[in-house]
Design brief:
The chain is of the alpha+beta class. The protein is built from 2 helices and 14 strands; from the N terminus they run H-E-E-E-E-E-E-E-E-E-E-E-E-E-E-H. Strands 1, 2, 3, 4, 5, 6, 7, 8, 9, 10, 11, 12, 13 and 14 form a 14-stranded mixed sheet that branches. Strand 12 and strand 13 form a beta hairpin. It is elongated, with a radius of gyration of 33 Å. The protein starts with a helix and ends in a 16-residue tail after the last helix.
């Protein structure tokens, strides 16, 4: 009887736990909004917790994966490359935290899964404590037996490629990272025999401190974009400076010519004095 009573007492607690877990799961929403992108190659992902956006990511991605196939003599091996784009409509998961967040994207029946990990840190400067966030780890899991991008791979199966000592997309806290230029991040497979290249472009990411729902904070442009922007504006600036110098030179010449034209010319030859007066 005591055991039965104890079991009955434990059931409400278990029901409360299940209800709490279900409520926590319902409070987090993940949305793939790639259909709203004007670029057919760019995907948009949003993670929301408690009805508020806590992580947003927009980017175009492609992975170049080397793999072995049999040569025509069926003895030797040759290396081919699979170009795997991130598919629209991919499944996603996300986690938001105060100092750690992550985004997990899977497509083609989870044959491919890309995981991005973000961390926020602080450091001391002459101005005091300042914070920044960055991507500190990227992982790509792929199945070389999948036939869409892999053709007759030798030893097909699931492989994992990881970044090593990664510190990418470094951005001041409270800002979003933006980079239109293509960036390449190298990932090493778990057998250390292959290097997978992750190509990212048209990137806009913010994993922390989003102040408005579905709205990125002020952007922090990557060094490549900053350099390209400078290269685009530098000829315009130089042209304006050159034009201004020409205008100033013409004005000085005009003023000088006007002043010298109004001066009385005194003849140096004494014989010309008789013609004066």
């Amino acid at each position: 009887m005591e055991a039965r009573v104890s079991a009955v007492l434990r059931v409400p607690g278990l029901l409360c736990l299940v209800h709490a877990l279900a409520r926590i799961g319902a409070e987090q929403e993940v949305e793939n909004l790639s259909g709203l992108s004007s670029s057919p190659e760019k995907d948009i992902f949003v993670v929301r917790e408690n009805g508020t956006t806590c992580l947003m990511a927009e980017f175009a991605a492609k992975l170049i994966v080397p793999y072995d196939v049999s040569a025509s003599n069926y003895v030797d091996l040759i290396t081919e490359e699979a170009d795997i784009p991130l598919s629209r409509g991919a499944e996603m998961k996300g986690k938001c935290g105060t100092t750690e967040s992550d985004l997990q994207i899977s497509w083609l029946d989870k044959a491919y899964t890309l995981k991005l990990y973000f961390i926020k840190e602080g450091y001391n400067t002459s101005k005091g404590q300042e914070a920044f966030w960055k991507t500190n780890k990227i992982q790509f899991v792929y199945d070389s037996s999948e036939r869409t991008y892999f053709k007759d791979a030798v030893n097909p199966g699931k492989y994992t490629a990881n970044s090593h000592h990664l510190s990418a997309l470094v951005t001041p806290a409270g800002k979003s990272y933006e980079c239109q230029a293509q960036q390449t991040i190298s990932l090493i497979t778990n057998d250390h025999q292959k290097t997978v290249a992750l190509l990212l472009s048209e990137v806009r990411i913010q994993p922390f401190d989003i102040s408005a729902d579905f709205v990125f904070s002020e952007e922090h442009k990557c060094p490549v974009d900053q350099r390209e922007q400078l290269e685009e504006t530098l000829p315009l600036i130089l042209g304006l400076i050159l034009g201004l110098m020409i205008v100033i030179t013409l004005c000085v010449y005009h003023i000088h010519h006007k002043l010298t034209a109004n001066q009385v010319q005194i003849p140096r030859d004494r014989s010309q004095y008789k013609h004066m007066g």
